[in-house]
Every structure is written in structure tokens, then in C-alpha cells.
Amino acid sequence: MHINEAFGELKVLHQEKALGQVYVKVFMRDHSSKETFYRDGYTDIRGKFEYAVTSGDKLKSVSKFSILIQSSEFGSQIKEVNPPKDDTIQAAPVG
Questions:
Q1: Among 19, 40, 46, 62, which is disulfide-ready with 83 (CB 3.0 to 4.6 Å)?
Q2: Does 67 or 90 have the greater pLDDT score?
């Protein structure tokens, strides 16, 4: 698994092959240390998942992400990562 903190995305690979349909569940810790669910979904055909993208300005309150990556074939991993440091992450369109 490769995480790009600058863009808030991860890529899941096995022996250099992208793994699509891997489940990803993301929790956040806010600046007051409250931990809550942030978002979840599956990696795309390229093995990518944009974990920091969400509607609204929820990203501004994140101090840390905890990410569960779960593959039925290859097992699970949990990673803690920092949120992107700048405003390069765009909010997901609403609707």
C-alpha cells in the first residue's frame, strides 16, 4: 500500500498489480481529540482511493486520519496518517 499524504489518496498494490474493490474505511481525529467516522468506499480499478475528499469543509477539522484497508484475499492493515497540509484537496461535488 502506498499513501500520498499530500493529496489525501492511497493506492493498493500486490506485486506491482493494482487491486480494485479493496474496502477502505476512514476515521478522523479532530483538533479536540474526538474520533469519528469520516468516509468509506472501495478502491477503483487503478487501486486508488481518495480518503481525504468529502463534501463541505470537514477536512479543515481533521488532525489525524486512521485508515482501515481490508482485502478478502490479502488481509487487513491499519495506517495513521496526517491530513493534507494545503488546500489542494477539493471537496466532492454534492448531489
A1: 62
A2: 67
